[in-house]
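EI: anyone free to look at a 259-residue chain?
SC: sure, send it
EI:
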Amino acid sequence: MTIHRKVMQNTNNNLKTVLITGSDSGIGQATAFEFAKHNYNIILTYLNRQEDCIKTKEKCLLLGANDVSFFKLDLADSQSIINLFNNIIAKYKYLDILINNAGFLTTGLVEKISFQDIEHSVDVNLTGLIKNTSKLLPIIKETIINIGSVFSYQPKRNFSVYCASKYGARGFTKTIAQEYPNLKIYLVNPGGVATRMTDFKGDLPIQVAQIIFNLAIGKYKIKTGSDINIKDYKYGKLKRNYLIIICFIKKIIKLIIKK
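SC: here you go
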């Protein structure tokens, strides 16, 4: 309680508000923690795990968030998106930053995937993302960050439906960046991240969250509409250049061996 009272004393009119969908776990939760450390007002959403969202809220307050709210959001349900908008208007009036993180993974050969799973995957990853962004756009002041995937630009066997939805999200992001030049709009593409979706294998969510936060605050000087591929940013500039050189040398060696 002491920490919570101390946080509330920091309230001022300059604090910014961020909405992070799918923030009860994984990348969304880790991203909420990053913004909490910098005294943001944070809006969390969950689909089924309200208890996890409550725990996320409590930790955000401990980390320094000025204010934290959470709402149920089903991106496959248009009314749920409208309800979220109304709740935000009622309490905050506007958003500084929108992070469309919530997603759904469907895998398998396309002929083996049920129509229901195909529809749900597209509804959440693409149609719901578009609807949510469309509804919130009039009250967004600064930045929209859509969470894509390496499969937003790279096909993979057994991921056809997921790839289709993420390719669509990439096209949507680049187009609205042209339509709304007053906003900064980006697509962040993680690879495998250690979340429920990947059986907790891959990069730590905090690694992705730190890059998302840096992007949101303008640390990376890049053009609106750009892709942010996590693999290009997680190592830092010097180490990234080193790895590029090593990769290039390996390709040269392979070519020499083939000859």
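EI: The first strand starts at residue 17 and ends at 20.
SC: 👍
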